[in-house]
């Protein structure tokens, strides 16, 4: 009985080992399968290479221009900080913002304004860049002109002719333009140095430089206008409060606050780079930023080869199962 059970156990082990050996991948067999399908691999890889070259050549050049900015120093920050420490509570009750000279907060606010829908919408309308943003097809380097897609925009009559479904109109809305503009602009802020980089990508290298310059100019102007309007309203309010009180100490404080608001207005009007100072201005790029045509071709060839090998192995597997 012992011999019989031993024989049965040995037989079962042999069968299990035989099954496992069949399930194991024979590398030599796989190599033979791949070698037999070498022409399919070669043809598929060649087709993938041709397609990759066509795609790489079809894609237009994209240029990138950027400017490096630093938060502008607060020239009158000392006076405002002193008043904020002495009369901050009274100023808050009076509805006046002394600020305290925190340039980091102001620059961060400016960056949020820069990325806002309202600012970008005003920027697009002010500089009339909608065709360059939404209908550009390529850049004519010989004439330094943007060639527009005739199916979207008729440059001769300056009319939008694109075919879209409602609620969209032939002329892109500011919501569409905002989404498109977001893809072209990059704003980064270095937390350690507080340096800000504004970069724009476009098919025309001259447009990239122009848009960066306009963005820097407009955000400085926007923040300047906001501070001047706030200081003007604060001055009007403080003058009204002076007329309402006869207490000498309070009147003295209010006069000091009015003086600082006047300094804010004067300071804003005499400085062009109000919130950001340009450290490294934008230039017209001579070299394209993308596409990486060589990388596109290499990836196309690699993916074509991998796909063809995978197809051959899967086909062989299904044939073996039958």
Automatic annotation (TrEMBL):
Its main location: membrane. Residues 23-126 form the Polysaccharide chain length determinant N-terminal domain. It is a multi-pass membrane protein. Residues 277-316 form the Tyrosine-protein kinase G-rich domain. Keywords: Cell membrane, Membrane, Transmembrane, Transmembrane helix. It is found in: Cell membrane. The chain crosses the membrane at residues 39-59, 294-318. This is LPS O-antigen length regulator. It comes from Shewanella avicenniae.
């Amino acid at each position: 009985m012992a011999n019989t059970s031993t024989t049965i156990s040995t037989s079962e082990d042999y069968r299990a080992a035989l099954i496992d050996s069949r399930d194991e991948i024979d590398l030599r067999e796989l190599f033979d399968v791949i070698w037999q399908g070498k022409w399919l691999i070669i043809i598929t890889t060649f087709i993938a290479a041709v397609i990759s070259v066509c795609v790489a050549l079809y894609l237009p050049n994209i240029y990138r221009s950027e400017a490096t900015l630093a938060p502008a120093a607060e020239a009158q920050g000392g006076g405002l900080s002193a008043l904020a420490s002495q009369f901050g509570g009274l100023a808050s009750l009076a509805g006046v913002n002394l600020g305290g000279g925190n340039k980091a907060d102001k620059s961060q606010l400016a960056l949020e304004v820069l990325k806002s829908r309202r600012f970008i919408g005003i920027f697009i309308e002010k500089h009339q860049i909608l065709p360059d943003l939404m209908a550009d097809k390529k850049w004519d380097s010989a004439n330094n002109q943007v060639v527009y897609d005739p199916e979207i925009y008729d440059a001769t009559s300056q009319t939008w002719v694109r075919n879209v479904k409602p609620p969209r109109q032939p002329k892109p809305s500011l919501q569409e333009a905002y989404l498109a503009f977001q893809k072209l602009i990059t704003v980064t802020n270095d937390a350690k140095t507080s340096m800000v980089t504004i970069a724009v990508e476009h098919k025309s290298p001259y447009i990239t430089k122009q848009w960066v310059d306009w963005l820097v100019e407009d955000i400085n102007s926007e923040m300047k206008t906001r501070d001047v309007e706030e200081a003007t309203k604060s001055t009007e309010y403080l003058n009204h409060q002076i007329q309402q009180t006869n207490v000498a100490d309070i009147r003295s404080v209010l006069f000091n606050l009015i003086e600082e608001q006047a300094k804010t207005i004067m300071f804003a009007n005499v400085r062009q780079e109000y919130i950001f100072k340009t450290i490294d201005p934008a230039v017209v790029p001579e070299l394209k930023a993308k596409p990486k045509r060589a990388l596109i071709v290499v990836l196309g060839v690699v993916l074509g080869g991998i796909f063809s090998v995978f197809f051959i192995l899967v086909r062989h597997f299904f044939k073996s199962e039958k």
